[in-house]
Structures are given as C-alpha cells and as structure tokens.
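Bench log, entry 3. Co-assembly request; chain sequences pasted below exactly as received.
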Amino acid sequence: MQLLLARAASGAPSIVHLDAGVVERVAEDRLAARVAELEADEPRWVWSDTRHWYRPLLAAGVRVERCHDLRLARAILRASAAVDAYDPEAGADAGWEAPPEEHVPTARHAATPLFELGEFEASAGLKPPADLHSAAESMAEHERQEAALEAAGADASRLRLLLAAESAGALVAAEIHAGGIPWRRDAHESVLVAALGDRPPVGRKPRRLEELQAEIGAALDGPVQPDSQADLLRALRRAGLTVRSTRAWELQELDHPAIAPLLEYKKLARLLSANGWHWLDEWVRDGRFRPDYLPGGVVTGRWATRGGGALQLPKAVRGAVVADPGWRLVVADVAQLEPRVLAAMAGDDAMAEAARGRDLYDGIVQRGVVATRDEAKVAMLGAMYGASSGDGGRLAPRLGRAYPRAMGLVDEAAQVGERGGVVSTLLGRSSPLPSADWRALQSAASQPDATPADERRARTAAREWGRFTRNFVVQGTAAEWALCWLAEIRIGLHALGPTDSASSGTASGPVFAGRAHLVYFLHDEVIVHAPAEQAEAAADVVRAAAERAAELLFGDAPVDFPLDLAVVERYADA
DNA sequence: GGGCTAGGCGCC
DNA sequence: AAAGGGCGCCTAGCCC
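Structure output for the full assembly:
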C-alpha cells in the first residue's frame, strides 16, 4: 500500500491513497494521529522530503516503517545512466532542485509547532522548500519515477533497492536528529579546560593559547599572531626559516624552538574554534547533540551534514559522548569497507580471499604482494584514489598484477572519466558529467592550433576527472552498502521492542524512550544507544545487519565484512 | 555588513 | 609523512 502525503493547494495536508485513488483531507492538528493510525497497515509513505514530513511526526511520537523520498529519488533517477525514460526537464520548474530546508538552531526548532509554516513565511523571497509541493505535483513526480523504473528493464530491481535504501537512510537521519547523540557537557568542558585553561571572557583567548603565543613570539624575536597565516609566515621567514606554507606537516620538518609551541598552538586553536565552548553552546542541549545530516548530500551518495560538523568529530572530544545512566553505546565500524566492496563488485576472488577472516592488508602481505601492512594500505588507497606519485603511485601497480579484476574495474572507471564519460555504482547511481569548462579544455586541446600548454592543461584536467570517477564507483558502492546496513539495523533494533529503561528525561524523544536506536553514522561506522539489558541484542542486530547488507548487494559473493564492535559507556573507550 | 576565496585541518 | 578521492567548517583577508 502506498500513501502519498502532501499539501493541497490551500496548504492543508492531504493523504492520497494511491492504490484506491482516494484523497483524504486531514486537519493539521490531526495529522500525526492519522498517520499513526494508517501506519498499522504498513504502508509506504510517499512524500516530497523526509526531513520536512518526518521530523514533526517523530516529535509527536510517531514512527513510520517505510517511505519513498521523492526529492532524493528524483536526483538519482535523473542522473542514472540506467534510466533513459526520465525526462530531466519534467517538473523542473516545481522546485525539486531546491536544497532541503535551511538549518534551524536546536532551541528554536524545539519550539516550532507541528507543521507550522512560519519558518517558510519568515524567509519570504526564498524558493519554496520541497515540502510545499502540492499533492498534484508530488503525484506527477511519483508517476514519472514509476514509469522510469518500469522502463529500466534489467536494472530496475537494483535501482529500486537503491531508492528504498536511500529513503530508509533519510528516515534514519531524521531519527538520529530526534534521538540525538548523548553528550555530556561536563565531560566536554573538562577536556577543554584541561587543554586550554578556563573559558575566557568574550574577546579573549584562553590562557594556554596566550602562553603559547608568548613562547612563539619569544622564539621568533617579536610578537606574532599565529592565527594570521600571513603574519606567521613573515615571522618565520624573518627568523631565517625557509617555509612555503604554515601547514603543520611542513613545520614539523623544521628544527627551531618556535616550532613545538606553534604546533601545539595550532592543535589547540583548532579544538577551540571547531569544538570549543561556542560549539557546545550552539549544538548541545539537554544532553544531546543533534546532527543535521543531509542524506545523499555528496554526489557519490555519501551523507553530508550542515552545521555542527557531525562528520568531523575529532577524537579529542569523543570522551564527551557518554551513554545515559543504565544505557550503553554499541560502537561498530567496518574494517576496510571500500576495498572489500571493490573486491565484491569486481568479483575478484583473489582479493576476497586476502580479506576473508582477517585484516585485508595483512592478507595482501601474506600473499607476498608487498612487504608490510603499511605498504599494503598505501598501495590500496593509491589504487582507489588514483595516486600517481609517491609511495602510493609506486606500489599500486603491484596490486594490479595480484588482483587484476579489482584493479581493472577502477582503472576502467578512470578511463571513462578521462574521456568525459559517466560511471555508475553497483546499484545505479551515476556520476555527474564534467563541467562545461572541462569540456572546453578538452575541445581546445584537440584543435589543430592547440598549444602544448593547452594540451597539458587538458591532460591534467582529464586525469583529475579520471581520479574522481575512479573513486566514485568504490566510494559510491560503499555508501550503498552502508545505507543497506543502516536500514537493516533500523529494522532490527525496532523489532527488539521496548524495555522498561526510561531514557533520562525525555532527551531521546517519545519514539525512542526505552528503545535501542541509532544515534550516529559516519560513512562506515555507527553508534547505537541501547538500554544496558538490550545492548548485547543490539550488537547482534548490528552484526546481522552487516551480513544482510552484503547479501542484498552482492548475493553470495565470497567477501566478508567484519565489524570492529564494542559495547561501552563512552565513545572514547571503543 | 555580507559575500567570497584561500589556507588550513578535522573526519572517512 | 604526504600523496591520491570525498567532504564541512573555521579564520583571515579581500572585495563590494
């Protein structure tokens, strides 16, 4: 059963029963209850934008099992090389290309009533966000997508899996926002005070930074503002140091008394600006950090985030991620996800064998391809990213001889990109075309009057795009594996059912009180927040989901995806 | 004051 | 130790 949720022209919510062809008007204040009622029939909810529709439902205590996110599906179908029956111009003026709604700071969002339009009205002049697609527009888009899928022939089932996984990911993203990462302000502040000294007054630097700045100045014979790259570069050169930049790795090579305090300053200044007291004030409330994930936000299918930097939580502050009393964190990541995905999608049994039951890089060493684990890692990264120089460029060809199928797959993807072509992931997400500027460069280089400089520029640009498409197929298919993993974890955790463990306060929201739920996702890593008595069961769910994801994507291909998994109270202890 | 880029660095 | 792919976000410094 499919139910389409959208707004009538009047702005009132409507539920279109797509199978029965019946339109049901719903009063704004009855919508959440009505969705909950209909959820008993296990429908697939079809809607314009998961973030818009699902966040208020979650806040009202309503979980849905399945959805189809029209905006995300449209982006995939428009670009997919497996789809030629989808007119990219159809509906182009209906605002589907608009990015999802703007970030609303936590405090104000919490106060936003269900389905209020004030946010949009307050930003008059902007394009309407996706939520305001009328029921008619949403239905038309849905029909275009169905028709495109039906015409996709043999690729349709993989595309359908991709769309289902993408939509399930969008549900997870909204649910992570609702549940929130348990974040201990006191623990975070302890980290900051230990590193930087007490919180300074507004406009002042923390004590430790001032001390280090003075040390640097003394060593360089004059006051220095280390936050200013230009000032710092001048001071270093005045002291007789030959430097091209102020990057930490370049400074590390220098032997001078200013360097140690300078590197320490850079590290601490980074902590302060990225995850200092200001970040705590803005992003942590009621013991939760609520990331604003953007599923499908990266062309490869990886998620992006907007604000808060949830994809870059530095190791230094992970001690602040602490389970609620009586709860645990199940922290799991996949060892070497991308090379394993590559081995499976290429059907490279030799590489699968190197990975089976052990560290993939150790397996490569045992096969005698390279001498050390570090070399194996650098070679593999070099092969997947297209390294042309350095150790990666030197070592990657050895992998080509040992694992010709896997390396052939990425080499082929690179060649397609260098010619300006489109590559696709296993499930059918396709790379974008290179820009008009890029094509102009190639075209200029092929003219009879092309100069050597034209040819050099074109070749450089072609190789650069080839590195992108080379990586696209691996990164994108790994993202698909991760989406399937997330979707299976979500289903498995829900099936565990509720416990009597009250969440501390209501921080996790009404849907997750007493229930194990996902609270973090980072490309190949998840964190589940679970009642202690359910933690082992949740860990089993996470493991089983990894096996299921592998089956969904690769059938019975002989590649395993082992997890590093820990049940802990603190993220930092995983 | 806002918009922009560059440099730099955090994550995978 | 970086390189080689993908990002977000901070500051400084420049522009209008």
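DSSP finds 22 helices and 14 strands in chain A. Residues 284 and 528 of chain A are 18 Å apart (CA to CA).
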